[in-house]
């Protein structure tokens, strides 16, 4: 009987030991499952969604800076600081160290009220599925000035040309006018974006000359004109040949008595050996005609208007007489 009791007691201990081990294994397994479950990234707290939720869109046009619209950070993307390199125009480039490697994104489509269009910076991995991703390099400029005016259009373009020259003639992949964006709430993000908002800004004199030389050369090539200009011409007496061009216009800022003005210039030009006077109405010339005329002009006389942009096509060291008719 004693032996039988000991055997039963031993079996109970073994059974208890097995149960204890089994319970411990179950508890450990449940604990491990709980840890693994908690370690799984919740969809609502995934890194990508955190990045998406952290993107804040701000008005492209900040009216708080209306009185200093073209100064400092300007009222165009006012929260961003420009990058400035000596002798160059101020610029914003995305993605870059300055933007913390974030992309530039914009959304909405209002061509009359910039406060209804917005911008934001976002990491590539934080873009939503609804985002339209535009590959390549995009050039973007503010629209403080009316770019129907040739002079404002030229000075807005020059910093992009200067930046391209400095960066091995990098070219934009597209031109994307805001009015061509689809009229919806989807954001558009650029793989690379160069933003200028100061026109020529702090561009140095030497860089302006270099950019002008390049533009002049390309335009002359486009119009089939010798990129080097007409060269030095002399009269039969060996005196320098001088072409004085009086560029007239109609409408606002035109001369009230154009005949009197022409007579004055004719008289003065006749007093200089080798001087030839050209009187031209700018409206009568197409683009390449104007380039050809300016290439052969030594002295340009014109009212103060956007047509003076044509002086870009004149040789270096040419002269300009600008008048302000009342």
UniProtKB/TrEMBL annotation:
Entry's transmembrane regions: 21-39
Entry keyword Transferase: yes
Alphabetical list of Pfam families matching this protein: Glyco_transf_61 (PF04577)
Glycosyltransferase 61 catalytic domain segment(s): 243-321
InterPro entries registered for this protein in UniProt: Glyco_transf_61_cat (IPR049625), Glycosyltransferase_61 (IPR007657)
Transferase among keywords: yes
Membrane topology designation: Single-pass type II membrane protein
GO MF annotations, alphabetized: pentosyltransferase activity
Subcellular compartments: Golgi apparatus membrane
GO cellular component, one term: Golgi membrane
Assigned keywords, A-Z: Glycoprotein, Glycosyltransferase, Membrane, Transferase, Transmembrane, Transmembrane helix
Protein name: Glycosyltransferase 61 catalytic domain-containing protein
Main location: Golgi
Provenance organism: Malus domestica
């Amino acid at each position: 009987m004693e032996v039988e009791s000991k055997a039963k007691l031993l079996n109970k201990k073994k059974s208890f030991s097995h149960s204890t081990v089994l319970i411990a294994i179950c508890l450990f397994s449940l604990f491990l499952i709980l840890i693994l479950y908690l370690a799984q990234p919740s969809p609502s707290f995934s890194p990508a969604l955190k990045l998406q939720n952290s993107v804040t869109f701000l008005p492209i046009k900040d009216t708080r800076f209306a009185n200093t619209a073209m100064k400092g950070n300007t009222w165009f993307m006012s929260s961003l600081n420009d990058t400035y390199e000596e002798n160059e125009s101020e610029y914003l480039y995305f993605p870059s160290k300055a933007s913390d490697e974030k992309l530039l994104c914009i959304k909405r489509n209002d061509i009359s009220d910039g406060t209804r269009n917005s911008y934001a910076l976002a990491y590539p991995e934080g873009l939503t599925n609804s985002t339209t991703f535009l590959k390549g390099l995009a050039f973007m400029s503010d629209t403080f000035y009316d770019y129907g005016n040739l002079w404002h259009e030229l000075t807005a373009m020059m910093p992009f040309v200067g930046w391209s020259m400095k960066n091995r003639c990098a070219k934009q992949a597209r031109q994307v006018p805001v009015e061509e964006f689809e009229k919806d709430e989807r954001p558009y993000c650029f793989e690379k974006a160069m933003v200028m908002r100061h026109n020529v800004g702090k561009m140095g004199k030497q860089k302006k000359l270099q950019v002008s030389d390049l533009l002049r050369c390309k335009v002359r090539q486009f119009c089939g004109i010798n990129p080097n200009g007409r060269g030095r011409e002399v009269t039969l007496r060996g005196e320098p040949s001088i072409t004085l061009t009086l560029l007239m216009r109609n409408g606002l800022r035109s001369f009230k008595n154009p005949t009197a003005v022409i007579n004055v210039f004719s008289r003065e030009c006749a007093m200089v050996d080798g001087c030839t006077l050209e009187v031209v109405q700018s409206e009568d010339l197409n683009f390449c005609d104007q380039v050809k005329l300016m290439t052969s002009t030594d002295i340009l006389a014109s009212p103060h208007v956007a047509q003076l942009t044509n002086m870009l096509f004149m040789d270096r060291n040419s002269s300009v007489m600008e008048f302000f008719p009342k």
